[in-house]
Amino acid sequence: MTAPQWARAHTNIALIKYWGKKDAQLMLPANDSLSLTLADFYTDTLVRFTDSIATDQFALDQQPITGQPLAKVTRVLDQVRQLAGITAPAVVTSRNHVPTAAGLASSASGMAALAAAAAQAAGLTLDHPALSRLARLGSGSATRSIDGGFVRWFAGHNDATSYAAPVPAAPALLADIRVVAVVFSDQPKAIGSTAGMARTAATSSYFPAWTQRAAADLHRLLPALTAGDFAQVGQIAEGNALAMHAATWAADPPFTYFLPATLALVQGIQVWRQSQGVPVYATVDAGPNVKLLTRAPHVAAVQHWLAAHFPTAQVVVTQAGPGISYYPAGKEVDA
Questions:
Q1: Domain holding 309: CATH number?
Q2: Same domain, 156 and 199
């Protein structure tokens, strides 16, 4: 074992959604997905293996964590211990920098930071695809938070073939794209993502069409990223998100993550875009909050429009972010 290790990983927003598993045990998704890593939202995690404790310990933002969240952490740590040939429990300390106001889940950044820090602390030298496979055991979306920029998660057919890797994109697009998070609710979801995926995959008559749509959207998105075609990227991302949510409406029993404001915003920006030519597109994960994709020169106009039409919503702006980074245990990271 080496010294205790800090790692930092950033959260991401999926442009081609991950929705449904073909193997829940291995966390293998039903379809490939593609995301953008975000600059301002991240998790710092310290891992220290020690024989001085009996079982793994996990604290998040100075609060001890037990139950299912701890079980997910231990699942990642067990794999690290197996790879490193060690048995010591670990003390895991995490600090989230994913504000509630951003409406973004922190599981992606949290599990990616855990995988990176634990591997280093155990003396392992893993490349990014291997780290993404490790992070996948804790959270599917964490697979895509090992790398920065645009990242593709290959669904694969077993553990070895289900991993993430960066995809090429025009440098101007990567520098120019902005994500405007619009938050209507920070309350827990009535149906969690895991349960929602499982119900959709098992009962929705639209689910087979969804997986086919996701594959076709990805096929169209890859050349659009390379060409730097923001309009095409936005159109594909918006359509893909709405197709995912359509599958939930066709589940049995049907359900939706949308609030009335969610649909009003999506429809509103479509009308605004078509009437005024403003390059702004919506994407929505498994929740009521909307992420708007736009270009840097148009951020102020988008913020002004939101203030006029949705004055009570919380709005946070970010851009493309980096992959994992490391800090020695003696170095103070941002509190």
A1: 3.30.70.890
A2: no
